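are you around this afternoon, could really use another pair of eyes. what follows is a protein written twice so to speak, once as letters and once as structure tokens for the fold. i want to understand how the tokens follow from the sequence so walk me through it. anything you notice is useful, everything is just below.
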Amino acid sequence: MQNKIAFIRPKPWPLANIKVAEALARQFPDHDMEVIDIEDLVRDKTIFLAINTLLVCLTYGWGMITGAKKFKEAFWRTSYMFKTVKKLLKKRLSNHNYSFTFQMQSLFDCSLQGVPHFIYTDHTHMANVFYPNFDVKKLYPGKWVGLEKEVYTNASKIFVRSSNIQKSLIEQYQQPVEKVICVYAGNNIETDNSAIEEKSYTGKNILFVGIDWERKGGPDLIEAFKLVLRRHPSATLTIAGAKPNLEMNNCKVLGKISPAELDTHYNAATLFCMPTRVEPFGIAFLEAMQARLPIIGTNVGAIPDFLQNDWNGILVEMGDIQGIADGIIRLLDNPDLCRMYGERNINLINERYSWQAVSRKFHTHITNHISQ
């Protein structure tokens, strides 16, 4: 009998969806992998999409008008969408014999009766209430949370990227402790470490990498950078991913750039700072850590798992502009401290935060479960 894996994801992007598929395939070389994108599954279902659009407006219309909900997110969070995707997947999967199925994220129930099913996610919906100042009006109704819980209940094991999501699944979704396994995550940019073994930290270039400018704390960084310039007038700030409309000295806005270009900026940076306000994980931090950069981040989401204050960087509270500025100044004042933090970061990447390390954990837990 041919060994086969069904790998199910919402769509190819973000890049982690591709990286995990590649890593999982390497761990199970005797299996063929079938990759299924949910977006492709529903793309040509015109009537279904029209009905769902109407239901989104009826169910979440007021929330979208007031700004509490976004159509793009609400579109995937109707009972109709959930149940229809379940039926489409069942039809797609039922004609094959799979050793197991593997699902990225938890928007849908991709389990198949009688087949071991594994989920890898960086979030739960209810984990949002852990964030400071979170507006509960942005929560989806209990009916949706009930469907989400169904996703977890039907899984054989749930792999998560961080301890805060592990806590959410156990405390908020009543999942058994032994079922939820924190395997962390890998970085998506392969930095050329040979080019930075003798990295200099005497420069004063601060790097920010994030597409969602507001959510990633970009405005807070700008205010902090103004304070930094009083102490270090030659300091520079490079912003990659986002493209805010800024007019200030020593600040370069790149917008979206290729991975190769991004690698160049990681190598040229002195430190990485992203004072994010909401962060399910934060892959950019791992990319910076692989580039041997000291990091500055906020005490939210998954960040405390890999950023220990005064050990490999500076951990500040969300919205603490003075704290962000003080952290940057402290690192710019002390290249030797930057080097020590940077070395600790590359070691942590090698030990825990690589897709190779993560996929080895996948393999161990999946094979142990299947062999039971």
Summary: The chain has a mean pLDDT of 93. Residues 4-186+354-371 form a domain with the Rossmann fold fold (CATH 3.40.50.2000). The longest helix spans residues 46-66. The first strand starts at residue 4 and ends at 9.
